[in-house]
Design goal:
The complex is a heterodimer of chains A (about 240) and B (about 775). With about 240 residues, chain A is α/β, with parallel strands linked by helices. Helix content of chain A is about 35%, strand content about 25%. In chain A, the strands form 2 sheets. Chain A has a 6-stranded mixed beta sheet, sandwiched between helices. The longest helix of chain A is centred in the last third of the chain and has 16 residues. With about 775 residues, chain B is α+β, with helices and mostly antiparallel strands. Chain B folds into 4 domains: about 180 residues, no CATH class; about 150 residues, no CATH class; about 200 residues, no CATH class; about 180 residues, no CATH class. Chain B is about 55% helix and about 15% strand. In chain B, strands 1, 2, 3, 4, 5, 6, 7, 8, 9, 10 and 11 form an 11-stranded mixed beta sheet that branches. In chain B, a hairpin with a 2-residue loop joins strand 17 and strand 18. In chain B, helix 7 runs parallel beside helix 10 and helix 7 packs antiparallel against helix 14. Chain B is elongated and about 100 Å long. The two termini of chain B are about 30 Å apart. Classes of the chains: A alpha/beta (about 240), B alpha+beta (about 775). Chains A and B meet through helix 2, helix 3, helix 4 and helix 5 of A and helix 12, helix 13, helix 22, helix 23 and helix 26 of B.
Chain lengths: ~240, ~775
């Protein structure tokens, strides 16, 4: 791949990103690039800045210094509404604790992301059903989060993240709240998605998740990138 | 207990905003209640106390001395049920003429009109113990004691030692001022002096064993006059009439102030219950931690009650103090007027004691039910309970809304109230109370404006009033021009439309010791130009016709078509009451100029004119006209029209102020609910923002959730407000003896209705906007990671 091709394929670029919370430094001059179709795992001890990195890329938080560019958009130039629209179009997020809306059944939780973009309810529901079907939980579409298992909830959350065909899927400890069986299922799902071309950035403590799902491992220490390693996915 | 106190104090600190809201609500309702209860107490207690102290005359009867002898009257008074009698006292009526001369030091110029003189040797006795509050009682002929409210005189030269000069009587030296709550005379002289003044009537004062009601007093009157010659009774005055006279204005304010006080109380209870239940629900984890630490269920309840007691006590105390301050001017105004001074209204201590203890108690009661939920909650369940509502509640509604064509932020907002029906109910009731208040205020304002007459709707409006200079008032001089010259001058000035001369005169009413304030008008169009609205009948046109207010009729048991005889300067004129207006007091009467000239010569009548009402041609500048008139006759005091009267200012001003306060408080209730909702739903809000919900959409969602309640609250509150208006306004006007025509209540036109319906929406949106925007700006990164 030439340098120009490489630049065209860059989905995420962090350049000297620094984030301070009062006197505490969460990120200390982080520079990082993620290519389209990559699956990158970020690991490190608690408090090393992994989640802060994810928040910067999702536009949920702003850096104290440096710049974050995602899919060609410099997030520093966007206001709150611009960031919301950016997330809507470019980002899908998966959380450790799913963050589903308890009042809505699985189908409507997924469709919600589409409806926010102005997609009519019927069309959004059809797309949501397709996703739930692809993820193997279409039969649970009318169930509310309270009655779903952890694995099922995370699948619904993944479906919601994919609803608007994001350029980048961000996962924050996606298996952290799951039992091992459910965790395996989610890992398989993430591998499948990446193999279909979905760019993936995950933050995890789970070495197994990183080695199974990621093509590159970024290790963080004290808010800095300590080491980057290319990975061969294990079976 | 210290652990409970510490936990409560920490909870109050954590919920500063909610504590402030409760405190403010309690304060507002306390102020209103103190004023209402204070007026209610003052409307009866001071009169009753003073009347008992003076052994007031429960019935004062005036007899024709030519038809009945004193011996007959004394004999007739010996009836079972009569406990005390005073009199007969000889009586005569003299008239104080208009006086435009410069005041002479040492000579009293009493208010013009008839004065009833009574011959009494002694101010004491078994009935009507007259209070000589200045000087002494009359001891010899040539002396007079003048009836004045305690501590008050009416003119600069009215003082002990000055001379009272009246036609038909020798000059009398004022030796004292006295007050009789029973209103038995305008002045007292010795019996010898009165005999020299050619009395024509006799007065007897009675007290009875049973005189609690109008019916009883009327029966008593029948008993004491039963055996007397026909036509010997010229008139009678019941103490209930006097009491009504002195207290009716205060009584008029009581219903609407009570209504606002109760509304304030309801809102306070609703918001307190809402805040406490919200605090309990959102504080499940807090409750669980307290219990896990070893707090007993009762201690947990105590924590929550104590938490509410703080704003309850602070709001109640401040409200009681402020209510005392607010009540003072209203009490004074309510008891002001013709008969002011006989009652010194003060705020009863029990009112302040009641609110001081009652308001915090009420807050505690409102907090008790939700706090008991904390009592029954197990520690394990409390700790594990999430802040989000359990599945199943309002889910069908959410489901339907999610499939609707509405923007998703709107449909999500519409579904939010169904997640917490209890909280939604309480919030909606606050909004309903707010709308009810706004509706009631709008109705009262419209009705009072209609009652007082709308300047815009009148085809003859007063643009400027010119008062004739009164030399007894510092800075004013006597007019150089005569009455006809002044009127001619006003008519000749450019821009004049028309002029009415008004002569306010105190006239006697046959059979009554009290005078009546009569207004005589000269000039075409006075009827159309009257600043009040005619309720029934028509305006008076001839010398034998007059218009009065409902209160006049009510006080004397008269109706339209009745005839009364007015007297002035020794002349009598019978008039038929042909019209009933909206604002005439119980002792006011309006009549054409011809009625006055039937009583006194034209020249004397002209002396009574003290003001001219001018209606200007369209486009004329009132200030230019006033300046030209003032230049032509320097004694004239121009007063451009415009200012509403006291009743308008008080009723509309107070109602508007209370309405704004309660509307604000209702909005604060909404504010509080949105704060609670946003706090409970912070995880959902974070997630929604993470998937691309813009700040504007978040704001729209939160505001929509309350706007829906506002719209429904508006639809419920408006009919309730209209119903309250229909109950409260007649209660107010009944207190002053005014019978309302239906037009006074039918003041709801589409524009006014639209405004009041939208007020619910306004309360909800204004209350929700700030916390909704705050929720939209919430930092979500942290929220999404916490569980």
């Amino acid at each position: 791949m030439t340098s120009a091709e490489s630049t065209e394929n860059v989905v995420v670029r962090l350049d000297g990103v620094r984030k301070e919370y009062g006197e505490s430094v969460a990120l200390d001059g982080v520079s990082l690039e993620i290519q389209a179709g990559e699956a990158v795992a970020v690991m490190g001890p608690s408090g090393c800045g992994k989640s802060t990195l994810l928040n910067m890329i999702a536009g949920l938080d702003r850096p104290t210094a440096g710049s974050v560019t995602v899919h060609g958009e410099d997030l520093g130039t966007l206001n709150e509404t611009g960031l919301a629209l950016f997330r809507r179009r470019r980002i899908g997020m998966i959380f450790q604790f799913f963050n589903l809306i308890d009042d809505l059944p699985a189908l409507d939780n997924v469709a919600l992301a589409g409806q926010l973009t102005g997609t009519p309810a019927g069309q959004a529901r059809r797309r949501a059903l397709e996703l739930l079907d692809e993820l193997g939980i279409a039969q649970r579409r009318n169930a509310y989060p309270a009655v779903l298992s952890g694995g099922e909830r995370q699948r619904v959350a993944v479906a919601r993240a994919l609803m608007n065909r994001p350029a980048l899927l961000l996962a924050d400890e996606p298996t952290g709240a799951l039992d091992s069986h459910s965790g395996e299922q989610v890992m398989d799902l993430l591998i499948d998605l990446n193999q279909m071309g979905q760019t993936l950035l995950m933050v995890t403590h789970d070495k197994r998740l990183a080695t199974r799902c990621a093509s590159r491992l970024v290790e963080f220490t004290d808010g800095r990138v300590a080491r980057e390693t290319a990975l061969e996915r294990s079976a | 207990m210290s652990a409970v106190w510490r936990a409560s104090r920490a909870a109050v600190r954590r919920r500063r905003l909610q504590t402030f809201v409760i405190g403010l609500v309690v304060l507002t309702s306390t102020v209103t209640l103190v004023v209402a209860l204070g007026l209610m107490a003052a409307a009866s207690a001071p009169f009753d106390d003073a009347f008992a102290q003076q052994r007031g005359s429960q019935l004062t009867v005036t007899y024709d001395a030519s038809k009945v002898t004193d011996a007959q009257l004394t004999q007739a008074a010996h009836q079972p049920g009569v406990t005390d009698v005073a009199g007969p006292f000889a009586e005569t009526v003299l008239t104080a003429p208009p006086n435009n001369m410069a005041p002479v030091p040492g000579v009293d110029n009493p208010p013009l009109g008839p004065i009833a003189f009574v011959g009494r040797a002694d101010p004491g006795g078994p009935v009507d113990r007259v209070d000589v509050w200045s000087g002494r009682w009359v001891q010899r002929p040539g002396e007079v004691v003048v009836m004045r409210p305690p501590g008050e005189t009416f003119a600069r030269y009215e003082e002990v030692g000055s001379r009272l000069v009246l036609p038909g009587a020798p000059p009398l030296v004022i030796v004292g001022f006295a007050s009789s709550l029973s209103q038995t005379a305008g002045a007292w002289v010795t019996p010898d002096q009165l005999a020299a003044m050619h009395p024509t009537t006799s007065q007897v004062l009675y007290r009875f064993a049973h005189a609690g009601s109008d019916t009883q007093v009327k029966a008593d009157l029948a008993a004491v006059t039963a055996g007397l010659p026909q036509g010997s009774v010229l008139g009678s005055l019941e103490y209930l009439t006097v009491k009504w006279d002195l207290t009716n204005t205060a009584n008029a304010y009581v219903p609407f102030l009570m209504a606002f006080g109760i509304l304030g109380l309801l809102v306070a209870v609703l918001i307190t219950a809402n805040v406490v239940s919200g605090a309990v629900v959102s504080g499940y984890r807090h409750i669980g931690v307290l219990k896990a630490l070893g707090f007993t269920p009762n201690q947990v309840v105590a924590v929550y009650l104590l938490m509410m007691l703080v704003p309850g006590v602070v709001g109640g105390t401040l409200g009681t103090l402020l209510g005392g301050v607010a009540a003072k001017p209203l009490l004074q105004m309510s008891f002001s007027g013709f008969n002011s001074g006989y009652i010194r209204p003060t705020l009863s201590p029990w009112v302040q004691l009641a609110t001081l203890v009652g308001m915090p108690a009420l807050v505690l009661l409102a907090a008790l039910l939700p706090a008991l939920r904390a009592h029954g909650l197990s520690a394990a369940r409390a700790i594990s309970a999430g802040s989000a509502p359990t599945a199943g509640r309002g889910l069908r509604v959410q489901r339907r809304l999610s499939g609707s064509r509405l923007p998703r932020s709107v449909s999500l907002g519409l579904g939010l109230p169904f997640a917490r029906p209890w909280r939604t109910g309480l919030t909606m009731m606050s909004i309903v109370m707010g709308v009810l208040t706004v509706t009631l205020t709008t109705g009262l304002t419209n009705s009072v404006n209609v009652m007082m007459g709308s300047r815009d709707s009148s085809n003859w409006r007063v643009d400027s009033t010119f008062y004739v200079g009164d030399p007894s008032v510092p800075g004013q001089v006597s007019p150089e021009l005569t009455d006809p010259q002044i009127e001619g001058m006003l008519r000749s000035l450019p821009g004049n439309g028309s002029v009415i001369a008004a002569a306010p005169v105190l006239v006697g009413l046959s059979g009554e010791n009290q005078n009546v304030h009569a207004w005589f008008f000269r000039g075409s169009g006075w009827t159309a130009g009257s600043p009040v609205q005619l309720f029934k009948g028509r305006w008076a046109h001839g010398p034998d016709e007059a218009v009065v207010g409902s209160a006049f009729l009510h006080k004397r048991g008269l109706k339209l078509g009745s005839r009364v005889t007015v007297g002035l300067d020794g002349h009598q004129q019978a008039v038929t009451l042909v019209g009933e207006d909206g604002s005439g007091g119980p002792d006011e009467l309006e009549a054409p100029w011809s009625t006055l000239t039937a009583l006194v010569p034209e020249a004397t009548a002209a002396g009574y004119v003290n003001q001219y009402w001018v209606h200007l041609a369209h486009g004329t500048d009132v200030n230019t006209y006033d300046a030209a008139a003032k230049a032509a006759e320097p004694s004239l005091q121009p007063s451009p029209a415009g200012g509403p009267n006291n009743i308008q200012v008080t009723v509309i001003g107070t109602a508007t102020l209370l309405s704004i306060l309660l509307g604000t408080v209702a909005a604060l209730g909404v504010f509080n609910t949105v704060v609670l909702n946003a706090r409970e739903r912070r995880r959902d809000l974070g997630m929604l923002k993470s998937i691309g919900m813009t700040p504007r959409q978040v704001t729209a969602m939160m505001v929509t959730s309350m706007a829906a309640l506002g719209a429904v609250g508006g639809l419920i509150g408006v009919p309730l407000g209209i119903a309250a208006h229909r109950v409260i306004l007649p209660a107010m006007t009944n207190a002053v003896g005014l019978e309302l025509p239906p037009s006074m209540l039918d003041v709801w036109h589409p524009g006014a209705l639209t405004v009041v319906v939208l007020s619910g929406l306004a309360i909800a949106v204004l209350g929700a906007l700030l916390p909704a925007r705050s929720a939209a700006r919430m930092t979500i990164a942290q929220v999404l990671r916490s569980e």
